[in-house]
Amino acid sequence: MPAKGKHRRQKSTLITRGLVAAGTGGAVVALPLIGATGAHAAEQAAPAAVSGTVAAAAQVQAQVQAAPAAKAAAPTTYSVVAGDYLSKIAADHDVAGGWKQLYADNRQVVGENPSLILPGMKLTLGAKNPARAAAPKPAAKAAAPKSAAPKAAVKAAPKAKVEVKAEVKAEATEQTRASRSAERAAAPAAAAPAATGWVAPVSGGVSTPYRASGSMWSSGYHTGADFIASSGTTVRAVGAGTVVSAGWSGAYGNEVVIKHADGNYSQYAHLSSLAVSAGQSVSGGQQIGLSGSTGNSTGPHLHFEIRTSPSYGADIDPLAYLRQHGVSI
Question: Could you confirm whether domain 191-324 is CATH 2.30.40.10?
């Protein structure tokens, strides 16, 4: 007989409770597991991406820094012209290490005598002077993150430097021209051989006379006459003869010695370059080289001697000798 006023509550079985628990637990557990896995993967991917970006940036920066250095180090070729000497070329082209480095780089071309270079020689010029090449870098670096205005200023700066350098060169050229004009005006008769075929070695006047005394000369006196001649001035044979020697001669630097028909010898010292060689026949007024300041010299000029033999110590008055041969000096 059924009980009155009561409903019987259906009991859940253990299997049902287990499924519910499992279902509920699975839902609760599954969500955190999926979230944790995604976060863990993101944490691993982030450092890798950052590391790759840093490496790429470092590589780009290294390439940017290497490009100017490679450009600066690229060598160029220079062709020697009349009046050139190594220190002048090194200064004009900002050669790092000066004339000594220039000579070391071109020793096979120049030879054993660094003071003797000839027109037409091809010299390799190395990297530019690093101090001058690096000067614009700070301004260019500061201009990059800001605006285009500083960049324009950086571009204008080298142009201004070039213009200033051009003005300095132009001024030096004018001074050289004026000096040579003065030399030609001082002795116009030297430009062409006299009726006897004899000429003065250069067109400039005498700066130090023959037999001037002083401790600077090993013999106690000046064995020749010094003529005013800026570096690169044409030096001529005073008369016809045969070249006895042409090359380096210690304190005299680059010199030429010529034997003349009367048995006397003329000597031309401190030359910057030579245009003749031993054994060659020359005529009066023929170019034999260019004046300079090689050897034991305080500045560009021509040391000229007349000797009774080709060796040092056989000197006679060179100006008197030239006058005897019809040269007005």
Answer: no
